[in-house]
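User: Quick one: structure for sequence A, then sequence B.

Assistant: Sequence A:
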Amino acid sequence: MSDTRRRVKVYTLNEDRQWDDRGTGHVSSTYVEELKGMSLLVRAESDGSLLLESKINPNTAYQKQQDTLIVWSEAENYDLALSFQEKAGCDEIWEKICQVQGKDPSVEVTQDLIDESEEERFEEMPETSHLIDLPTCELNKLEEIADLVTSVLSSPIRREKLALALENEGYIKKLLQLFQACENLENTEGLHHLYEIIRGILFLNKATLFEVMFSDECIMDVVGCLEYDPALAQPKRHREFLTKTAKFKEVIPITDSELRQKIHQTYRVQYIQDIILPTPSVFEENFLSTLTSFIFFNKVEIVSMLQEDEKFLSEVFAQLTDEATDDDKRRELVNFFKEFCAFSQTLQPQNRDAFFKTLAKLGILPALEIVMGMDDLQVRSAATDIFSYLVEFSPSMVREFVMQEAQQSDDDILLINVVIEQMICDTDPELGGAVQLMGLLRTLIDPENMLATTNKTEKSEFLNFFYNHCMHVLTAPLLTNTSEDRCEKGVFKRNYRYCWSFLCTPSHSHSTPPTPIFQDNIVGSNKNSTICPDNYQTAQLLALILELLTFCVEHHTYHIKNYIMNKDLLRRVLVLMNSKHTFLALCALRFMRRIIGLKDEFYNRYITKGNLFEPVINALLDNGTRYNLLNSAVVELFEFIRVEDIKSLTAHIVENFYKALESIEYVQTFKGLKTKYEQEKDRQNQKLNSVPSILRSNRFRRDAKALEEDEEMWFNEDEEEEGKAVVAPVEKSKSEDDFPDSYEKFMETKKAKESEDKENLPKRTSSGSFKFTFSHSTSAANGTNSTNSKSVVAQTPPASSNGSSSKTTNLATSVTATKGSLVGLVDYPDDEEEEEEEEEEEEASPRKRPRLGS
């Protein structure tokens, strides 16, 4: 149906006395057999579904408001409204309603509102008492009028009768003339009566009376009457505020006089409702529902009129993005858009969609990019609110913009990086703005609201973009504050240096690293420990970043896995387990818990090779016998490993840390891990015993190259399962590509080195428990070993005896020459002796972590 005359929006009044939009459709009046009467039907314009089916009841009171609204109540506390696109359509349906009820279409209310308790009394009332007789409008009658208005408020039928009498006799304008006389005569008693009268008329809740009271001619006198509250010793000065203090700022001159009048009226009526009128009691809360509706529909009309004026909006955007615009003007423009977006929330979904598309077309996102980087805190705050409206409405629209922008701009000025920078640089001690921005970032990177079409996958495209262009900006504070040479190499580039003035004093030369502030708050007592600024604001910021990274671990799988491996991120995060702020240590632990919760063997190998349980166990031992959240969280982590029977992690924990943990008996977690480990060891031994000796030989093993190929295949499968498309890996340096191999070589070197380094041996704490030293080089873990370390690896001979070295060399050559991934060798008689010698030498050689003695 294309008839715009009957195009309507359907609204219902909710429990909070706010109008909820139920949809847009076309209304018709027809006889419905099931309802046995003429009914109003509204069918949705999108799919033709039935939005409304309401019988025109002969006793229901329908009200016509503002020429395009019809409002009525279907049942107790269930109000309905039809908002027509055109006045002609409203008049046509109104005639149908009046025809069913036998009323003249010229009336604006078809029935008196009658509640059940008054039906009998109303039937007994004589026909001659149709209207209430009003006293003559004179000064000496004001008290009588006030008593009359106050007395009818408890009776719906009497409220209706009084409203009709006030409307028919033009009584409100006469009362306002008396107000002017009382004010000139300084008649305080009369002014107090007029306050009660005008307040009572507002509580009649009649739209027709509101239109008179809120007209340009009357509204300031209405406000004047409401200044003289008898409960106040001195009258308020609301008129002075509205006329002198409150200034109407036109960022761009509004030429439409009707629009200007509507804006003024809405502001003043909102002021009356929010400021002047006292908060209604439980018994009065329904009295002003029509006033709320009046404001609501005014806002809808204002947004629609502004949106249709393309010349006006174009001019606003032009000035907002013009470099010549001064700061005060730009602040006004941003505040205008903030209020404009707030008003748009009253629109129905289809109109709101068109509204935001109009803003996007005009360039709201590039404009926000400019104003969010300004120094003015008020402007940045308003810009953040506007950005939140856009993200909540359509995350895909924002994502599409930033991906297109990345093709033309540097990473430093990308919108998302500007948002991250604002989060990092929030000067609020409580980081209120940073928390809001973090929530918006999480919405943008949430795969749940990303679209997947036949032509493209938004998920894979956007996540590739985010990890290549934005993730390094997000993690910069974390990596900087957990590195040994933090701030020395200017990680934040030029645009982050000023943000971190509260962390470091300014550096005077490039060769001298900045000196951290709060020296006594830096964790780590020895020079091998990693530096970590531990002031409260930094800790809060790092907690926010960790919360976002934890979200990524849960939802991004492949991309975040690649990033964690390349940056050795978990090791850096676990440095924060040393923080004096328990909430930050718990955030770091939660990050590790999410990783382990995935039960991914890639992550498990990464954790065991890096010995990353060490800082967690140190934190548990340092916590001592205190029973607190940190203790419970660490125990839960190990309990999860035990319950889920993650074998590789169980073996690593028992083999390396059980000596330090066996004294913990208030939970059975660690003994349970030992039991699981021993059971698995027994099963493996039973399997070996049932296998022929040639297969059981250690010489029958997987080729190292084949293992790497299998891992790469597994990695690619994981990628395809997540994005259903080939995803480009995060850009990384050559040293990062070699991370797994160089890391293993580094760890082999550490085996030899640690046997000579007495400082790295486990030490007893004052409580008698064991303490580990977490001093792995971060650069080595990242696969960026120094030249010296590489030379050590090259010079380190294999751990074998002289007598068997030649054989070992020959065997290694034969393994390399074999193309298959499995290599079978002849079982020589003296092999078992050689294997025993090798095992003895392995036991004698230093381990990555020495066995712990009692």
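Sequence B:
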Amino acid sequence: MIGVEEDSADPYLPYDGGGDTIPLQELSGRGSNYAMSNGGGGGGASSSTHLLDLLEEPIPGVGTYDDFHTIDWVREKCKDRERHRKINSKKKESAWEFTKSLYDAWSGWLVVTLTGLASGALAGVIDIAADWMNDLKEGVCLSAMWFNHEQCCWGSNETTFAERDKCPQWKTWAELILGQAEGPGSYIMNYFMFTFWALSFAFLAVSLVKVFAPYACGSGIPEIKTILSGFIIRGYLGKWTLMIKTITLVLAVASGLSLGKEGPLVHVACCCGNIFSYLFPKYSKNEAKKREVLSAASAAGVSVAFGAPIGGVLFSLEEVSYYFPLKTLWRSFFAALVAAFVLRSINPFGNSRLVLFYVEYHTPWYLFELFPFILLGVFGGLWGAFFIRANIAWCRRRKSTRFGKYPVLEVITVAAITAIVAFPNPYTRQNTSELIKELFTDCGPLESSQLCQYRSQMNGSQAYPQGSDAAATPGVYSAMWQLSLALIFKIIMTIFTFGLKVPSGLFIPSMAIGAIAGRIVGIAVEQLAYYHHDWFLFREWCEVGADCITPGLYAMVGAAACLGGVTRMTVSLVVIVFELTGGLEYIVPLMAAVMTSKWVGDAFGREGIYEAHIRLNGYPFLDAKEEFTHTTLAREVMRPRRSDPPLAVLTQDDMTLSELQAIISETSYNGFPVIVSKESQRLVGFALRRDITIAIENARRKQEGIMLNSRVYFTQHAPTLPADSPRPLKLRSILDMSPFTVTDHTPMEIVVDIFRKLGLRQCLVTHNGIVLGIITKKNILEHLEELKQHVEPLAPPWYYYKKRYPPSYGPDGKPRPRVHNVQLASSSSRYEEDESEEEVRLLDNSSL
């Protein structure tokens, strides 16, 4: 938990610093015409207001954001357009300015190139180190300590086909300590050392995370999605987080916990993108442009995680990115290409592939197999729905009980249970990626796995035929029992592991669960086709002795179905798995299973695991996939309500500095509407709290004569003042002259769409130009949560029309009065009052 200052906290965040209960927490200026300047950015105003304030110096710090706040997408885009115009206007002045314009134009490609290079290099280091440390739990290579088990036996001439993983150079811990390789004593010693190393790795990982980088825990994808939507989390993509995440990811994977490194690799890649973006002013001084780099970095992360560059681009587009223009698509593709090239050059697995479990199938699939494929999709959807509910329930319990206060103890407990239960079963003892590789692999003459022990049809002896459609031996049935136990073990442990205070990905555990289920189903269908080849299902396709069922294909389809059920990915997931297998003809089975898993999962809840964790942590994220079908209006959601304090406003030219500071000190609002006067109430603009504070401090430091009774004005020209008045303070440069506004009868479905598509932080609610209230992103999230818990039946169209367009005459038959000070009745009284009662009430001037 990271504490934050109370004046910058958000009640939606699960941090110990507390949070404001104010209605204006998430406020910022909006509009296409800004009079804001960023001292570092060279101007944050649009062209018109820039000309008006041309003689004013930019105020350093204005236009920046506090921690745990949302960026203003519209303002950032305006700043970037102004910067671009300035560069284009100067590039013909000299060769140096022309060079600067070229550097600015190519900086986007440079930053994604550096991000791809760093992502590929770090992924290669993580893969090599994780494999070595995972094998360290079982033994050590005497000839070269830095070799893992497979590399140690590469150069040995004493290996056999059946025992290709045994060689004199590789020694188990029992052989080193006891001097014997077989027997109960050696088994116990290996068991003890396996558990010891697992606990050591887990303890070191959680200790490093807790002490040096608390943000390095978890998958990182929920936070990446939130950051890409415009939220600020300082330090989450910093250099310390990158370094600790890289180290602890290796330790967490090597500890044997039911987690993967693929999800955290996206976090690692985004850290690289964030760090390199600070080398280029175009991205370091613009939060919206920086998020374009992070979108490309997330594509590079998936590219090196699965060896799927195209799938990485689609993953960034479908799953994590909030704003994805066409040039970001090109740069994401290039970053994924560079990252995949670097990883291929490193060749961490020694198989000339980007992933450990790359497979190729050479037999086609048949139409009758769609039925078991769809069944695997149903299983994936059920597993995804069950996992999301169970994991969220456990994480919520962790947050609300004392158990969550001891993360080190929790990690050690889960690691101990995992190691003790996993060691006796060979399918849970080995690395999860190696398990998936074994389950994906098709049986052939070079496979010595227990899953491939079929009886030859030639002479009845046990052999490894080219085709696997033959009678299974007891070894295959024994392997199926062990896989069934491994399936139960993986399901239970993954629920309790995801969310621990160590780097933990969900892709590999979900794929392992689906691959186990798919392999079991594939062997069952294979044996059914062998013993009942005369059934009408198999008669047309499966001849006696023919190889028509591929159990490895079922494992691949099951892996995709389970991963889709958990994450609710569709297109990107199919492309990722397609790039893993390299077989175009298996697209249809994958699509059928993935879509079935999504439909089944959506029947129990439309949220994927990442959206569920975003909601659990309270991040301000508006999901574009969520539909708004209710008939509420803007006036029912805006603040203040009837029971709230009046809306805090500033006047444009009749406030003193002491009055302004009193409003700032007495409230915790993030910004204030600026009106003409107390009598008029007409909206002039919007000023941010942070910008006001910075401007006052800057004026006191650089200007003489600024006193507490100095007049503060937001107009272009100073008001008429007595001769003995102190120097006035002009704050027009920080005023947003065109904040985004909606009328009080705007349907909320339109307001929600505006917030999603424009990335708004807030919009003001007006009635005939008079400001009534404000709607923030937080208010919309609260409203959506209330609607989920208290679902109203949809009202008939005539009722909706009546609410949206009230009659011009009141209940007494007289025309409705039009007075300046107008405030609508709150939504809490809407159900208590009759519909024909007056919909507006007048306020005294003193109430505002």
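The CA atoms of residues 20 and 641 lie 17 Å apart. The first strand starts at residue 139 and ends at 141.

User: Thanks, that's what I needed.
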